[in-house]
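User: Hi! I'm working on a homework problem where we have to compare a predicted structure to a textbook description. Could you give me the structure for the chain below?
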Amino acid sequence: MEDLKCLVKKLEQTSNEKEQIRLLQEIGNKLLTEYVIVIPTLNVTIEPLRVEAYYYPYNDTSKFDDPCAHPSSTKVNNFGHLYFIEEKYGYPGVDLCLSLGDYYLSFLIKNSRVDGKLFKQMDLYEAYQGDWQEIQKVDVLHRIDNNHKMVLYTSRVGLKESRTKFFHEKLAAVTEIDNQYDWEKGFGKLRTIASYLVENGIEETDENIRSILHSRSNEVKKYCEEIRKNKEKN
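Assistant: Happy to help. Predicted structure tokens:
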């Protein structure tokens, strides 16, 4: 658990947006490859497959002004517990809280697997919301051996561009991309794969694309060229 806490403390200490985004991605990566969520009272293990980062230091919005985090005092200074977002507050879901101080930091569990069954955000909420009061009291993070899964980063879904300047930032981490995810408009599955290839210096050969997508794709190649050109401009 100390590795995650160390990353969270680094996040607290920096005001550099690029570094903040990198740290949020690194935390998301660890959640998908080195942790599962265990609810001992129900004998349930939740394997996260896609998570979205929500970080909002509301006492200093100049630091990271992203007011999309669901506001609740329960989530402040709360590390390793689940938080259930009730339907009356919007689209229901389950957050994993990771805050170590007076700010919001949580990862929304967009997709997960329990006993071999895939759950979307609302499915997970509905499955366990009857026990939410007891579940929220329990430390649920459980360290596992690194599963070495490939993790890709993409933008969060269901947000309004007018509400956050981080609308297009890649603050969602996803693995097992063949599962039935809701891929966002304008930054979908193929562009996400292209971004992964470019950022990791992997040539977009048919073989490399097929290793991720399980099929060849000229569109991925076009996206790779586009991403490189945009990087050169910036």
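For your comparison, note the following. The chain has a mean pLDDT of 91. The radius of gyration is 18 Å. Good luck with the assignment!
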